């Protein structure tokens, strides 16, 4: 039951304006309101799953049709408030860091505090502010934490359009922002959707993906995506993709970096998104020499925790295999071998093989370990 003072359209119009202003006060770059129609994406999404393009992310196939019907996630949902927040610090290098082979590249959203924690707190604060103004309005806040088609929701809200790289793009800020949503039972006036997608004939994100992860425009094969491989994937990284990963040890920003709309990116003012522990410019060897306790300490409250220590070492071993050959790199790899898990050992041995033909290898005292003998073929 709506409060009596919200019984007229003009009151709801004013409330919508207030919500958007409050969102800016809480650090969001933009807020827009939508009554989303998501059922239209059901067939396309299921076809993507049928092709196994979600790789090992089984959770993307869970929860039935819930992601297409917001009222199943939050009963009584009448509108979704879609919000975005900038995360790229002004001081952080991007392209230049990728060119420095002995330095680690970490996706820029992951350099500071876990965005889930920060954005969820701000969403809740905004929802409480609305509650102070209108009473209990029935809401639920989400940030990449439920089966939600958040980019489609944002596109329908008129925040931007989904680019060929599957990210939300806006002429106001490119794609260097994170999304969050508030599902509400309030019948707020909705914003107009984006008229068209403005990628035109550009295919930079598709052709310059390091691992050719895009099957076609708007279709990503996650099994080839460096973000998936370095964060979600468990087990060995496919050998044919290792040399293409460069120095990327957690996530990948390439399809954003090559996008022409990136020039409109806005920088964050949030202190929590500033780099911790020199993660925007640290040497690969320094990070490789972290033990598990150091990893856990230095990634406390960080999204990097998601990959786990073993996969962290696995990823850095691959990056060291792609780094310039020098005695320090070879020594770091060899010194880690005796204590490495079987998974990490496999990637260290691969990395050493990449340096085998370099003259520095001949001058070093390092001997490449013998590869494990594969089991014999069964005899009929």
From TrEMBL:
<comment type="function">
    <text>Catalyzes the conversion of epoxyqueuosine (oQ) to queuosine (Q), which is a hypermodified base found in the wobble positions of tRNA(Asp), tRNA(Asn), tRNA(His) and tRNA(Tyr).</text>
</comment>
<comment type="similarity">
    <text>Belongs to the QueG family.</text>
</comment>
<feature type="binding site">
    <location>
        <position position="209"/>
    </location>
    <ligand>
        <name>[4Fe-4S] cluster 2</name>
    </ligand>
</feature>
<feature type="domain" description="4Fe-4S ferredoxin-type">
    <location>
        <begin position="186"/>
        <end position="219"/>
    </location>
</feature>
<dbReference type="InterPro" id="IPR013542">
    <property type="entry name" value="QueG_DUF1730"/>
</dbReference>
<feature type="binding site">
    <location>
        <position position="168"/>
    </location>
    <ligand>
        <name>cob(II)alamin</name>
    </ligand>
</feature>
<feature type="binding site">
    <location>
        <position position="252"/>
    </location>
    <ligand>
        <name>[4Fe-4S] cluster 2</name>
    </ligand>
</feature>
<feature type="active site" description="Proton donor">
    <location>
        <position position="144"/>
    </location>
</feature>
<feature type="binding site">
    <location>
        <position position="225"/>
    </location>
    <ligand>
        <name>[4Fe-4S] cluster 2</name>
    </ligand>
</feature>
<comment type="pathway">
    <text>tRNA modification; tRNA-queuosine biosynthesis.</text>
</comment>
<comment type="subunit">
    <text>Monomer.</text>
</comment>
<feature type="binding site">
    <location>
        <position position="259"/>
    </location>
    <ligand>
        <name>[4Fe-4S] cluster 1</name>
    </ligand>
</feature>
<protein>
    <recommendedName>
        <fullName>Epoxyqueuosine reductase</fullName>
        <ecNumber>1.17.99.6</ecNumber>
    </recommendedName>
</protein>
<keyword id="KW-0170">Cobalt</keyword>
<dbReference type="InterPro" id="IPR017896">
    <property type="entry name" value="4Fe4S_Fe-S-bd"/>
</dbReference>
<feature type="binding site">
    <location>
        <position position="227"/>
    </location>
    <ligand>
        <name>cob(II)alamin</name>
    </ligand>
</feature>
<keyword id="KW-0819">tRNA processing</keyword>
<feature type="binding site">
    <location>
        <position position="255"/>
    </location>
    <ligand>
        <name>[4Fe-4S] cluster 2</name>
    </ligand>
</feature>
<feature type="binding site">
    <location>
        <position position="205"/>
    </location>
    <ligand>
        <name>[4Fe-4S] cluster 1</name>
    </ligand>
</feature>
<dbReference type="Pfam" id="PF08331">
    <property type="entry name" value="QueG_DUF1730"/>
</dbReference>
<keyword id="KW-0004">4Fe-4S</keyword>
<dbReference type="Pfam" id="PF13484">
    <property type="entry name" value="Fer4_16"/>
</dbReference>
<dbReference type="InterPro" id="IPR017900">
    <property type="entry name" value="4Fe4S_Fe_S_CS"/>
</dbReference>
<keyword id="KW-0846">Cobalamin</keyword>
<keyword id="KW-0408">Iron</keyword>
<keyword id="KW-0411">Iron-sulfur</keyword>
<feature type="binding site">
    <location>
        <position position="179"/>
    </location>
    <ligand>
        <name>cob(II)alamin</name>
    </ligand>
</feature>
<feature type="binding site">
    <location>
        <position position="234"/>
    </location>
    <ligand>
        <name>tRNA</name>
    </ligand>
</feature>
<dbReference type="InterPro" id="IPR004453">
    <property type="entry name" value="QueG"/>
</dbReference>
<feature type="binding site">
    <location>
        <position position="199"/>
    </location>
    <ligand>
        <name>[4Fe-4S] cluster 1</name>
    </ligand>
</feature>
<feature type="binding site">
    <location>
        <position position="202"/>
    </location>
    <ligand>
        <name>[4Fe-4S] cluster 1</name>
    </ligand>
</feature>
<keyword id="KW-0479">Metal-binding</keyword>
<dbReference type="GO" id="GO:0052693">
    <property type="term" value="F:epoxyqueuosine reductase activity"/>
</dbReference>
<keyword id="KW-0963">Cytoplasm</keyword>
<feature type="binding site">
    <location>
        <begin position="252"/>
        <end position="253"/>
    </location>
    <ligand>
        <name>cob(II)alamin</name>
    </ligand>
</feature>
<feature type="binding site">
    <location>
        <position position="67"/>
    </location>
    <ligand>
        <name>cob(II)alamin</name>
    </ligand>
</feature>
<feature type="binding site">
    <location>
        <position position="144"/>
    </location>
    <ligand>
        <name>cob(II)alamin</name>
    </ligand>
</feature>
<keyword id="KW-0671">Queuosine biosynthesis</keyword>
<feature type="binding site">
    <location>
        <position position="165"/>
    </location>
    <ligand>
        <name>cob(II)alamin</name>
    </ligand>
</feature>
<keyword id="KW-0560">Oxidoreductase</keyword>
């Amino acid at each position: 039951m709506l409060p009596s003072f919200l019984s007229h359209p003009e009151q709801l119009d004013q409330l919508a304006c207030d919500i958007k202003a409050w969102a800016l006060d809480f650090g969001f770059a933009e807020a827009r309101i939508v009554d989303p129609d998501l059922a239209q994406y059901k067939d396309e999404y299921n076809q993507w799953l049928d092709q196994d393009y979600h790789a090992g992310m089984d959770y993307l196939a869970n929860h039935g049709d819930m992601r297409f019907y917001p009222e199943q996630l939050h009963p009584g949902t009448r509108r979704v408030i879609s919000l975005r927040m900038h995360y790229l610090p002004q001081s952080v290098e991007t392209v230049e860091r990728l060119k420095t082979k002995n330095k680690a590249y970490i996706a820029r959203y992951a350099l500071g505090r876990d965005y889930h924690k920060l954005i969820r707190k701000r969403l809740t604060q905004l929802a409480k502010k609305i509650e102070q103004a209108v009473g209990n309005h029935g809401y639920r806040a989400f940030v990449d934490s439920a089966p939600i088609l958040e980019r489609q929701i944002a596109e329908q809200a008129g925040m931007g359009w989904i680019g060929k790289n599957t990210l939300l793009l806006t002429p106001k800020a490119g794609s260097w922002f994170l999304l969050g949503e508030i599902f509400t039972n309030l019948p707020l006036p909705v914003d107009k959707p984006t008229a068209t997608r403005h990628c035109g004939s550009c295919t930079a994100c598709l052709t310059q993906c390091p691992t050719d992860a895009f099957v076609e425009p708007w279709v990503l094969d996650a099994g080839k995506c460096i973000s998936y491989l370095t964060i979600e994937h468990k087990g060995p990284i496919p050998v044919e993709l290792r040399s293409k990963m460069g120095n990327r040890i957690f996530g990948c920003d390439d399809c954003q970096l090559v996008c022409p709309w990136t020039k409109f990116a806005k920088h964050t003012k949030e202190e929590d998104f500033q780099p911790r522990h020199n993660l925007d410019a640290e040497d690969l060897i320094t990070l490789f020499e972290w033990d598990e306790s150091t990893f856990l300490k230095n990634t406390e409250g960080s999204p990097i925790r998601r990959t786990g220590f073993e996969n962290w070492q696995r990823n850095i071993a691959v990056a060291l295999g792609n780094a310039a050959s020098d005695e320090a790199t070879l020594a770091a790899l060899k010194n880690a071998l005796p204590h490495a898990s079987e998974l990490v050992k496999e990637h260290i041995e691969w990395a050493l093989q990449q340096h085998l033909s370099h003259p520095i290898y001949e001058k070093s005292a390092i001997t490449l370990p013998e590869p494990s003998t594969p089991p014999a073929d069964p005899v009929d």
